[in-house]
Design brief:
Four Helix Bundle (Hemerythrin (Met), subunit A), mainly alpha, 213 residues, 2 domains, 10 helices, two-stranded antiparallel ribbon
């Protein structure tokens, strides 16, 4: 567990690499020493588990557990990166897989494994709730189209005084549409989602108040 925490902290320091020179001691220590050390230690842990539990043939074997499969994938990707680090080969994809290392903390903590398992099992119920919300959004999007369809427009000049297309054109402005509107069901559902997120809803409220025929 301590190794996983230290490895995760090392990943956090990688975000500062861009501001360092390649030959700095910190870069050499982090990339060439610590990273390889963590990879080798994790590989040794994997080997010990395989020897103790068996690989896959018997019940309770190492690869019979989904969390162990995740560990095997992460450690395997790290070993491939380590093997290719000394040759001219693009290993960016394997470096990206380093970001999965903190997940090993979940696999080694029983309480967190239970929480993640409960979340995965609740996906079906969450989808049912989302289906109900989509139906509600659909109903109100149709209502919004009935009341505000074609009305969420504004004049590019003096929008608070020029409320119709004829007034805007006469003044030399351009009749423009707001990003959020109820001109169709799709746009209406997106507008309702923005309102339900409570982010930017006052703008949509004032745009609705300014709707003119």
């Amino acid at each position: 567990m301590i190794l996983i925490i230290l490895s995760s902290l090392k990943l956090a320091t990688d975000t500062y690499d861009s501001s360092w020179e390649d030959d700095e001691i910190a870069v050499l220590l982090l990339d060439n020493v610590l990273d390889k050390t963590f990879t080798i230690l994790f590989f040794l842990e994997l080997v010990i588990k395989v020897i103790a539990l068996g690989l896959i043939m018997d019940d309770g074997s190492y690869l019979r557990d989904n969390w162990n499969r995740l560990d095997f994938f992460i450690v395997g990707a790290s070993m491939i990166e380590l093997a290719l680090s000394n040759i001219k080969f693009d290993v960016k994809i394997f470096r990206m897989l380093r970001t999965l290392r903190p997940l090993r903390f979940v696999s080694h903590n029983v309480a967190m494994r239970l929480i993640v398992g409960a979340l995965i099992e609740s996906v079906g119920s969450i989808m049912n709730v989302m289906s109900v919300l989509c139906v509600i959004f659909l109903i109100f999007a149709i209502v919004g189209y009935s009341f505000f369809g074609g009305g969420f427009f504004y004049c590019s000049i003096d929008m608070y005084k020029l409320h119709t297309i004829s007034q805007c054109m006469t003044a030399g402005g351009e009749w423009m549409k707001w990003d959020q509107n109820f001109d169709n069901v799709g746009n209406g559902m997106i507008t309702l989602f923005v309102v339900s997120s409570l982010e930017g809803w006052p703008d949509i409220m004032f745009q609705a108040l300014d709707v003119a025929g």
